[in-house]
Amino acid sequence: MGSLGQIVVQWPQEYTLKTNEPLAQDCVTFVCLSISGRLNPALLEEKHRELVKHWPVLGGDLVTNKTPYHMTTGSRVDFKYRTVEPKLKDVSPLDFKLTPAEFSGDKPLIRPYRTGDGILGMADLFFDTLSASNLAVGSLFAIRVTLLQDATILAFKFSHFFVDGEGCYDIIHHYNELLLGGELPKGVPPPGIEKKLSEMITGEDTGQVAAPEHGGWEYIRNWCQVGLAGFVRVIAQGIYQEYAVKLGLTEPGVEKHIYLPPKFIQGLQNSCQKEIDQLAKETGENFKLSKLDVVNAWWVKKIYSSSRESLFLSLGYALNFSNRIPKNFGEKYFQSHYIALYIPLGTVGEVKRESLAQLALKIRKHVTVAKQPSVVKDNLEFLESIQGQKIIPLPKGGESEGAPLFSSWNRFPFEKLQFGAALEPGSAPGLGKVLFNNSRIILPLNISWKPKVLFFNDSNGGMWCQCMQLSSYWRDFEDISEYGH
């Protein structure tokens, strides 16, 4: 039970939701912020306690022996910190520092992801909360702090079943507000305990929604496989791949980060939009391409430029629909509001013959349709019909090789958070800034889905693309300058 003034909020001891995302139920989301200067761990823990006291859902656990999964509320503060001797540049998996010429230039660049002795990987940064096999999610929310000579790494862990990317950002944002001396909005249990999300969708379609063809807008129904057999097969394939790589029987997945300077992104967007505007004179269709439309199209063309032309591509996309759910002003609850889209792009051969602008337009058209209330509702209703079942993000008859997953974390301005108020006493002015965001979603058994891209903003207006793909796919990026090569 929590309170705010005279208002008493009744919190359930255990609950589940009438609409859950099966894809997320066994996954963990990690948000890892590198911050300039050393933060005060006592203050960080104190504000963590305040956060849990105000929102008891943050003090609970994931209950996996019930179908669908349940969540508990509680008062547990899953917080730990430790101090290590080196500086950030010596232990960071990524050299994210850019020169003025690099972030103001018009060409992408690549930074390899470092591993090995002395480098702090996910298991190091999330000590005592990440199991070796990642089979037990445990607490819904945890904070791990690593104090370095010149910086602090703030590592936040979330059950992906509990919250989506927007929820992760909201919690961290409110935690940041507490550190700055701010107040929290009134916390309430999620409305999804009593009502299905499909029944909460508001608004009318603003565009035409034609009957779906070849998958069309029935994204989840046509572009995911439902059932334990497929799930077990994917897990088994993932385990095989891990051992096959160690034995040299198959190529490994390799993670690197691609930095796209603002000038490069703007150039892509301007040239593509010019072509689409010219096309609109003939078709009468007026579309404005977003930065992500053109970046996604650029990446797809790049990674599959040497693939066999018969390979069918289905771009995986997470669409947030929280703007379609009515909310009470001054209240805050945590519940995922996203659906997975699998946009049919056609074969590699077809994608090669399309211009970059045409491919970006295809993506934009699907996103526009997917945002229509009737489409969101249809997909949610199907999702609600398979609650508790295992599903995998793979088109029927498709191949994982042709089903890249994209996650647009650039929607969340982590780079603007300020932690200066939480610095150790005596710290120099100007510290407490977020230097880099190294977030990721971890699958059971630490299996890596390939290809996969997460997008993050940087403070200079550019974009980092965290890419995991087979080593052979990186050959198509050899024209991009790579640090250290």
Automatic annotation (TrEMBL):
InterPro entries with a match to the protein in the record: CAT-like_dom_sf
Superkingdom of this protein's organism: Eukaryota
Name listed for the protein in its UniProt record: Uncharacterized protein
